[in-house]
Design a protein that fits this description.
Shape: globular
Strand content: 15-25%
Number of helices: 19
CATH architecture of the largest domain: 3-Layer(aba) Sandwich
Number of domains: 3
Distance between the termini: 18 Å
Number of strands: 12
Radius of gyration: 21 Å
Helix content: 40-55%
Mean pLDDT: 97
Strand order of the largest sheet: 9-8-7-6-10-11-12
CATH superfamily of the largest domain: NAD(P)-binding Rossmann-like Domain
Largest sheet: 7 strands, mixed
């Protein structure tokens, strides 16, 4: 203990990160997320050595518990398939675990831990009483029939239901998990528990406890946050060329709100490639292709021959733009993509996906005075409205779209203001990475101290 108290904040962070990498080998995504957050906390650790004395960092990087389980299911040909499921309950200091479920072949323990770790601070920033968790499976919904997806979701929930509850752990959707999947899982949960508890999952259909504006929340929230960031720098979306990677819920509704605010979205993508439309992306076409027909974004050019389709979605960042909104997946903007954006005059980057920029890319944006909105702050709108869905379920009420949207605007504005103030207090004015990490951390750390060493 005396050795720790003699350390500076930087030495303490270095020690914790070194031990984390030793104890969690090969978990590169988790290491990256921990490094980005912990290195931002040096200032607050020097000001408040009690965080070091009480081992807050050692405790906060260790999940409270991790579940890993087998998910056997039967495909349409009668063949038994087996996937691996996960749920990481990371931190419950300020509320029940809250975080999405991701179904994607890339899912592994490292990815779920990085997502769950980020979720602690993101959820804290919302100001709502929710802790951090995450889960998922290495199941690929693409190319599967509705019946196969239903059977998988039921098999997944047959194990997961043991570990979740309205006051314990409340999952939601993420990549590969939308309203359809949440519905199938909730039906199975209800059957197994014999309880009607709609608050146990969020992102549900409106007919059984879902919230208006939940589908739009992450994309809208991202744009509301970036709007505040631009406004503070005497800028706006009006007349700006915008690139949005991805074409799922986050991307679609970020495009919708950016367009409403006067921006011109000129490109979007999926995992296969991207489309560039100099006249502006036709959002109704994208919505139909991705939400109704569930087809690839390449279909866009069949209806809009003036647009271009290109393979390799990462090349989307070579297109000159004023505002970049990465809404696809982690590490989609590497240092080369960041340099291309900077060279082409990008003014602002707002992260809609979880950790879409590498550490080197973030450093490049900050060094070149690009306005940068980090994911844990700028994409917190989704979990914010999920928490509002939980509130509506608890009260047996349903708010209007306008009521939820107004609350979302307030949440995003408050996150921006808290992040700006925290950055200023630590001598890093305008650095939202530092500000968001500190603002999210302090609330959780103080709650952990107040509850003793547990």
């Amino acid at each position: 203990m005396n050795t720790i108290m003699a350390m500076s904040g930087r030495e303490y962070v270095s020690k914790v990160l070194s031990n984390l990498e030793r104890d969690n080998p090969l978990e590169k995504e988790f290491h990256q997320a921990a490094k980005e957050i912990l290195e931002s906390l040096v200032c607050i650790l020097d000001k408040h050595p009690e965080y070091m004395k009480l081992g807050i960092l050692e405790r906060i990087v260790e999940p409270e518990r991790v579940f890993m389980f087998r998910v056997p299911w039967v495909d349409d040909n009668g063949i038994v398939r087996v996937n691996r499921g996960y749920r990481v309950q990371f931190n419950s200091a300020i509320g029940p675990y809250k975080g999405g479920l991701r179904f994607h072949p890339s899912v592994n323990l490292s990815i779920i831990k990085f997502l769950g770790f980020e979720q602690i601070f993101k959820n804290s920033l919302t100001g709502l009483p929710i802790g951090g968790g995450k889960g998922g499976a290495n199941f690929d919904p693409k190319g599967k029939s509705d019946w196969e997806i239903m059977r998988f979701c039921q098999a997944f929930m047959a194990e997961l239901y043991k570990y979740i509850g309205v006051d314990m752990d409340v999952p939601a959707g993420d990549i590969g998990v939308g309203g359809r999947e949440i519905g199938y899982m909730y039906g199975q949960y209800k059957k197994l528990t014999r309880q009607y508890e709609p608050g146990v999952l969020t992102g549900k259909g409106l007919t059984f406890g879902g919230s208006l504006a939940r589908k739009e929340a992450t994309g809208y929230g991202l744009v509301y946050f970036v709007k505040e960031m631009l406004k503070s720098n005497k800028m706006s979306f009006d007349g700006q060329k915008v690139i949005v990677s991805g074409s799922g819920n986050v991307a679609i509704y970020a495009m919708e709100k950016a367009t409403e605010l006067g921006g011109k979205v000129i490109a979007c993508s999926d995992s296969n490639g991207y489309v560039y439309d100099k006249n502006g992306i036709n959002l109704q076409t994208v919505k139909r292709i991705k939400e109704v027909e569930r087809k690839r974004i390449s279909e866009y050019v069949k209806e809009h021959p003036e647009a271009e389709y290109h393979e390799n979605m990462k090349d989307i960042w070579n297109i000159p733009c004023d505002i970049a909104l990465p809404c696809a997946t982690q590490n989609e903007i590497d240092i080369n993509s960041a340099k291309a954006l900077i060279k082409n005059g990008v003014k602002a980057v707002g992260e809609g996906a979880n950790m879409p920029s590498t550490l080197e890319a973030i450093d490049a944006f900050l060094e070149n005075k690009v306005l940068f909105a980090p994911a844990k702050a700028s994409n917190a709108g989704g979990v914010g409205v999920s928490a509002l869905e939980m509130s509506q379920n608890s009260m047996r009420m349903a708010w209007t779209f306008e009521e939820v949207d107004e609350k979302l605007k307030g949440i995003m504005k408050n996150i921006y203001e808290k992040s700006i103030i925290s950055a200023e207090d630590c001598g890093c004015p305008g650095n939202l990475v530092v500000g968001a990490n500190i603002a999210g951390f302090v609330k959780v750390a103080d709650a952990m101290i107040g509850q003793g060493v547990v």
